[in-house]
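Q: Trace token order:
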Amino acid sequence: MSLKKVVTGLLLCLCFNSFIHSSSYKGFVKDDSGNALEFVNVTLQSLNDSIFINGTVTDKVGYFELGKQNKPVFLKLSSIGFEDRIIENPDTCLMDIELSTATYLLGEVVVKGSRPVAKINAEGLQVPISGTYLSNIGTALDLMGKLPFVIKTGNEVEVIGKGTPEFYINGRKVRDFSEIQQLSSNQIKSVDVITTPGARYDATVNAVIRITTVAPVGEGFSFTDRTTVGYKHYAYIFEQANINYRKNGFDFFGNLIYENYRERPSYKNQTYQYLKSGTVFQNSKGQEFSRYPVYEIKAGMNYNTRKNYLGFYYDFSYKPSLTESSSQTTRFIDEIFSQDLEDSSYIRKHYRQHLLSAYYSGDLGRWQLSANIDAIFQNNDKNSSNKEISSLYPLRDFLTVNDISNRLLSGNFIASVSLWKGSFSFGTEVTDIFRQDKYYGDAEYITDSDNKIKETKAALFAETRQSFGALDIGAGLRLEYTDSRFYNFGELQPEESRKYLQLSPSASISYPIGKISTSISYTRKTSRPGFEQLSSAVKYVDRYMYESGNPNLKPVYRDYLSLSGQWKNLILELEFISTKNYFMWQTFPYNESEDILLTSLQNMPRFNSYGAFIDYSPTFFDIWHPNIMAGVEIQDFTIIHNEIPLSLNKPLGIFRFNNAIHLPWDMWCNLDFSARTTGNSENLYVKSQWGCNLSFFKSFANDKFTIKLQLNDVFNTMKTGFILYDAICLTRMEKIYDTRDLQIVFTYNYNSARSRYKGRGSGNNDKGRL
């Protein structure tokens, strides 16, 4: 019997068993507009004396379940922004419960001494935001640096040990990271940091950050404008305007965004190349100047009834860029001077994207259904003018062109239902991708290429979560089939084409031991190479270096095992990761040349890594809200460097100390400190760094106006330095960015409300691969 038949049979059996009646109190909780409410507190109490018996919170579809009692009881449901609901002597039939929106406005609530209390669960942890000091941080991006086990460096976000996460807002996949920068923290109800993504997520997703916003109130027209004015080495401005109109179940929304970025990074590096002809040493320094404005427009519509929701939106973004760079290099061979090199380039890019997304979600009896359809069309052209001056060889003056076009069509379907003592979900996802990558130049040392990739992927998944008193058990299975065909100048390349059949299991158990909440989880994840990484195009870097993708790359497989524990506001997490086929850049002689090299990605042998992290947020202070996070990561990794095994296993330490201080006049001050020690990460030896950020926040007129003053990297210490090892090269690199940044953010809200768009998106990981 084939694996596909086994999985299909399992799904059919689970669907049949879902109709079994259970003796428990269960139901779905929604707001007065019919939207499912997640994280509603549901407690079961004695009707005679109100003694607490059991409790839970609703899941992402608003579902809860508690064991039946043989005595008079009542259910109490409560959630920030809604009136409490009491249900006396509930029966065991599936209940459809509605919570009414509270009559007060968020801006009128006086928050004094409230603190977010993270709670671990089987997937990761959940942090309430609304009604806590974190609602005054600024944006969702600012908030990321305050979450347990999440690191924010500039505009980059990382879940410790899991890498860059996928983001969801109200169940919808975030395709443009600027959404995280634009969402206000006071519009966020809660954030889930999912360190063990289940089967419903793509097999390549290692971590998820799921944001739930405060339920919108009222109808009519609303408008929000956010203006950011800042200074690095230049003055800049970001502008965002959101409009929304609601009436009788219809919701029309639109966004206009303008951003004006500039960067001037500089670098210094020293490279040793161990060649058969001798040891080459290069001492280089360089500077870049980049301008890349962003223009974006988005418009859409939602419509909802009591139990059905549908909507669509269209998004167009245009991102032109201009980069000028120059570098100077001195080259030695066996410690004897060889030549001086000067390189300069002028690069112009134009990136255009059209995105159309539509969704449906609703109820069909006991079932909750959702479907998403996405279409993306991208064009990205790059034109480079390059000049190289050598003290030994003639001038090189040449042009290169790189044109890339992508098309993605994707759809998914998910069905969920209450089953036994919990819930059960299953679904499918199909994605079709076409990509063309052309590269050519006007010199004989430039190799032309024309690559095409046609890829189709289909997935099936099933997952369930069951509660047996305080014991919570979850399990999931995802089956993915991928057919990827690679073409070079129009001809199919059988050796580079691939077919994959991947099975990704996941499982978790959570149970309190005394006053300590514990959770253990396992999952297997896959990382497929990006399309640029699969390209066989050999691209010119300089007269001694070329760069290429690798059509023969195999997917990366990771097995994650983690153990979490929580006592009051102290959280501890231990993790083990086993990685197979990891991608790393390696350098080789190019076309049997003695001094010209080619760098490309290669698969590495299996290696293991370990991590231990702790997060503590004391709550016994009044106006001071500190948070301390510390951790250590260590890997068991050996690389062959200059024909000798080199162990890269020095521990890497991480430390963060955040402070939120409630000042007079309801003003907030945030003083945050972060540091990283030296240590090994993959094939790098990372140098230590530390930094400090300072900000002040004040709102006026019940949050109608807000102002934030922020200074990032107060002492200008966030320098990046590392040593990179590969088979025949060692590179010492120092990079300097404009990390010190002073900015003022003004926000105006008129009848503030957020779009009710509830689509999750489909093909989300493949969108990132484009």
